[in-house]
User: Which sequence fits this backbone?
């Protein structure tokens, strides 16, 4: 899958950002105009820590800020501005992912990451949808198990289908 590392990096950056915003009350409000030097020094350290943690293309666009509050607001706005584009990317990739050269494990991980990505945008895919998409994207080497599992009513849960496909693939090899 193209961009899997980018998606992992994005998720890690979002998690780090959320951790900082939960931990630091100074990010919820700008420093007061009459803040003492100790408060401003702490704010500077937190801002530098955020730069060090999020340093890459995200922060490269935000270099001109000097307070934790300004940095957190800019980063928050950055992620919100990209929300629609990221949703469209996940929504387009989800039904079109094929196993190709990926192992069954990597292919299943890819499908789950896309499902989680859609859920982050309040467009969660169902378990049945995930299982169906997984089966339809399998390569031809496991075509028989694809047909057999796909014909079971009701469709087994994703983890069951995944383990059976993995076992079938190992038996072929």
Assistant:
């Amino acid at each position: 899958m193209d961009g899997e590392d980018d998606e992992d990096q994005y998720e890690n950056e979002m998690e780090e950002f959320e951790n900082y915003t939960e931990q630091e009350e100074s990010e919820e409000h700008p420093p007061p105009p009459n803040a003492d030097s100790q408060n401003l020094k702490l704010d500077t350290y937190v801002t530098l820590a955020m730069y060090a943690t999020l340093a890459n293309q995200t922060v490269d666009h935000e270099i001109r800020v000097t307070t934790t509050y300004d940095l957190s607001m800019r980063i928050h706005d950055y992620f919100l501005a990209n929300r629609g584009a990221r949703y469209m990317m996940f929504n387009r990739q989800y039904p079109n992912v094929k196993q190709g050269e990926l192992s069954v494990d990597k292919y299943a991980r890819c499908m789950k990451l896309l499902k989680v990505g859609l859920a982050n945008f309040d467009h969660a895919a169902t378990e049945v949808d995930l299982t169906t998409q997984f089966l339809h994207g399998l390569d031809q080497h496991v075509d028989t198990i694809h047909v057999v599992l796909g014909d079971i009513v009701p469709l087994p849960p994703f983890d069951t289908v995944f383990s059976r496909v993995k076992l079938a693939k190992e038996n072929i090899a």
